């Protein structure tokens, strides 16, 4: 959940380290720091809060060197203070760490007994102290690192440099991602995220789980989890700074909302035939006719995408679907059936809970698929069949365009299963494919509601509690809308199935509680309209989102109405997602919160 940058060069690196951290700001963090080696000393600069504070400190302290490591921290062990910020160091070694060391307390107590002193509350500092301890009894720095790693339990990505050898930089991963960047001028780089190396590295090498890399200015040597030398492929890295520019929008989130027509088009182009009359779906490792149950596992927004897919797949492919929260799935230890298939959804492909759930599914001998936005991520390499989305880099912490592209793949997957099982005719499939191909234009139309959403959001920003309701796939969109609002505006919001309103949530409803209604004019519309009347009768401030037919059919009171383009039952989730995203965005803007980097949140959640 943190960011790592490391540079080994012939030239000063401090400013480029900070620039690398700035490209990782989207991941979420609460402190930052760098360390360099200069004049046979490790020199460090850290600050609480945003990187601008680190910039100000560096302007005063003016430290620099030709080798350095840098870090943005999202607090786990210890408050977000300067003392707990990375890098952590002793006189001999400096480290940056992503992940959690589960046995740090035992290691810390043992080192204190040996006379070592600690200066932070973190689990990470124990790594620097262990390296210092083992350096004294080892014949090489590499040996000291191996001895240290053998002691650590948990997940980590590490960047390490030793004062005694400023010509080498070490990187290693277990659970948390780490990439090696190859420069063009005798330079090498470390990065927890490829975007950190945009504009720096020409080629990238992604470390496998358990790898340790030794970087010199002109070479990389990799050892696998058994301490044996290994070769990992490198590939051209072409992303530039434009990939992380928000111009001309005020926030990345707004930019990414407006990118949805394009990224939906790009993703659908991969899964639909050239004439848009049939599917072009990758070959699966299982027979759709043999599936006894499909298990979908994900976190947060991706979980809600999976919930939409449950409705689609059960209705048109007639396969029983379980949707599980990844952080609960592995520990629940569910029995998984023979011939079962498990589908994992993760924008980053590095979500720790989802990766752990995948390991469990593999142990249960399931065929696994992954819906992922990052081609070389851990999950993309681990599943039997990766199904890529083409959202491009998503910088805003609150996911928008990644959610829409996940729905694209899930819709194509549902249709593929149904067609292969003989439950959807070629004619009906052609109609569905035509409807999907029409989505980019429809999304462009619904973006025209932005001004109306901005006006409604002014009222929403004054609320303390907001309810979102829907039925069928719209229930999942209600949940997603509530999540978006609470993430970036800090207003308490709850999504619920409209039929459940009377079983508890309606107790919250009064004249101060807006009720956002996701109401496509489908077979469930009349029942949903009755549920809305229940809220309106308690003076709930209804925001009614529907198409023209639905708006004409609903005669109740409403604070506001948003009329979306006509759509089919199958494609409705795509269309109704955009208004709830815009409402959340403009509500946060009215409240003045940090839209792209909301407090306490991180983009890539690489700890359990």
Description:
With 608 residues, the protein is α/β, with parallel strands linked by helices. The protein folds into 3 domains: 3-244, Aminohydrolase, N-terminal nucleophile (Ntn) domain (Glutamine Phosphoribosylpyrophosphate, subunit 1, domain 1); 249-437, 3-Layer(aba) Sandwich (Rossmann fold); 447-592, Rossmann fold. It has 19 helices and 25 strands. The strands form 4 sheets. An 8-stranded antiparallel β-sheet has the order 3-2-4-1-10-9-11-15, covered by helices on one side. It has a 7-stranded antiparallel β-sheet with strand order 5-6-7-8-12-13-14. It is globular, with a radius of gyration of 25 Å. The N and C termini lie close together (10 Å). 55% of the residues are buried. The model has no long low-confidence stretch (mean pLDDT 93).
């Amino acid at each position: 959940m943190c960011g790592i940058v490391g540079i080994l060069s012939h030239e000063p690196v401090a400013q480029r380290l900070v620039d690398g951290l700035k490209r990782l700001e989207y991941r979420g963090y609460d402190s930052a720091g760098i360390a360099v080696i200069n004049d046979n000393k490790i020199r460090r600069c850290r600050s609480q809060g945003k990187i601008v504070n680190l910039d100000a400190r560096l302007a005063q302290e003016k430290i620099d060197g030709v080798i350095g490591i840098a870090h943005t921290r999202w607090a786990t062990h210890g408050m977000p203070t300067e003392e707990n910020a990375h890098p952590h160091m002793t006189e001999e070694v400096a480290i940056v760490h992503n992940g959690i060391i589960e046995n740090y307390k035992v290691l810390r107590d043992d080192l204190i007994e040996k006379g070592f002193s600690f200066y932070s509350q973190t689990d990470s500092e124990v790594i620097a102290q262990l390296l210092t301890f083992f350096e004294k009894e080892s014949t090489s720095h590499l040996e000291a690192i191996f001895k240290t790693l053998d002691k650590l339990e948990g997940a980590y990505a590490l960047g390490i440099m030793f004062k005694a050898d400023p010509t080498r930089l070490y990187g290693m991963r277990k659970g948390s991602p780490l990439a090696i960047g190859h420069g063009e001028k005798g330079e090498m780089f470390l990065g927890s995220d490829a975007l950190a190396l945009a504009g720096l590295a020409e080629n990238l090498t992604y470390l496998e789980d358990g790898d340790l890399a030794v970087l010199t200015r002109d070479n990389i040597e990799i050892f696998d989890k058994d301490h044996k030398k290994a070769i990992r492929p490198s590939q051209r890295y072409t992303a530039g700074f434009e990939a992380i520019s928000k111009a001309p929008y005020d926030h990345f989130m707004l930019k990414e909302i407006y990118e949805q027509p394009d990224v939906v088009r790009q993703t659908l182009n991969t899964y639909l035939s050239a004439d848009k009359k049939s599917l072009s779906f990758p070959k699966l490792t299982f027979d759709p006719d043999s599936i006894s149950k499909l298990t979908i596992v994900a976190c947060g927004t991706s979980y809600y995408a999976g919930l939409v897919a449950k409705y689609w797949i059960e209705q048109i492919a007639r396969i029983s679907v379980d949707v599980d929260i990844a952080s609960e799935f592995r520990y629940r230890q569910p029995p998984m059936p023979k011939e079962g298939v498990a589908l994992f959804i993760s924008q980053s492909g590095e979500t720790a809970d989802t990766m752990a759930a995948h390991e469990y599914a593999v142990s249960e001998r399931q065929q696994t698929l992954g819906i992922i936005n990052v081609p070389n991520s851990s999950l993309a390499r681990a599943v039997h069949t990766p199904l890529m989305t083409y959202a491009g880099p998503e910088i805003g912490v609150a996911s928008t365009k990644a959610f829409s592209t996940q729905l694209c793949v899930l819709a194509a997957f549902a249709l593929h299963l149904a067609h292969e099982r003989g439950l959807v005719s070629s004619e009906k499939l052609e109609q569905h494919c035509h409807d999907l191909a029409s989505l980019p234009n429809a999304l462009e139309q619904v973006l025209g509601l932005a001004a109306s959403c901005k006006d409604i959001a002014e009222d929403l920003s004054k609320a303390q509690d907001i309810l979102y309701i829907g039925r069928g796939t719209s229930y999942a969109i209600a949940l997603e809308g509530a999540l978006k609002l609470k993430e970036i505006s800090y207003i308490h919001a709850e999504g619920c199935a409209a039929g459940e309103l009377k079983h508890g949530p309606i107790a919250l409803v009064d004249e101060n509680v807006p009720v956002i209604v996701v109401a496509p004019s489908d077979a469930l519309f009349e029942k949903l309209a009755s549920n809305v009347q229940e809220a309106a009768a308690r003076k709930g401030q209804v925001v009614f989102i529907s198409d023209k037919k639905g708006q004409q059919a609903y005669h109740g009171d409403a604070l506001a109405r948003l009329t979306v383009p006509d759509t089919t039952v199958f494609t409705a989730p795509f269309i109704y997602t955009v208004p709830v995203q815009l409402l959340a965005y403009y509500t946060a803007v009215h409240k003045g919160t940090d839209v792209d980097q909301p407090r306490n949140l991180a983009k890539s959640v690489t700890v359990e």
